[in-house]
Amino acid sequence: MDIRQAIFQRLHACSSSELKEIIESGIASKEETVLPGLGVLFETYYNSLSSKDELLDSLSHLLK
Asked: Mean pLDDT over residues 34-62, rounded?
């Protein structure tokens, strides 16, 4: 099983509040082991967008 499959299997059927808790606790832990999982979620979200411009503009502003 690859990391993407493992992430989706772990998060399958999570409610939005459960997902929020998982993401926020992962970020708060500052553990680098969480980064691949967050990256998989970001990749999935990014790929689902019909227009990526707004997200890219927001990220660009955060990086300035």
From this structure: 94
User: Is the Cβ–Cβ distance between 37 and 24 less than 8 Å?
Assistant: no
Q: How far is CA 19 from the centre of its chain?
A: 10
Element (H, E) at 29: helix 16-29
| Interacting residues of 27 by C-beta distance below 8 A, sequence separation 6+ | 34, 38
* Coil vs helix vs strand at 52: coil
Instruction: Report how far residue 21's alpha carbon sits from residue 2's, in angstroms, rounded to the nearest whole number.
Output: 24
| AA letter at 38 | L
pTM value is 0.80
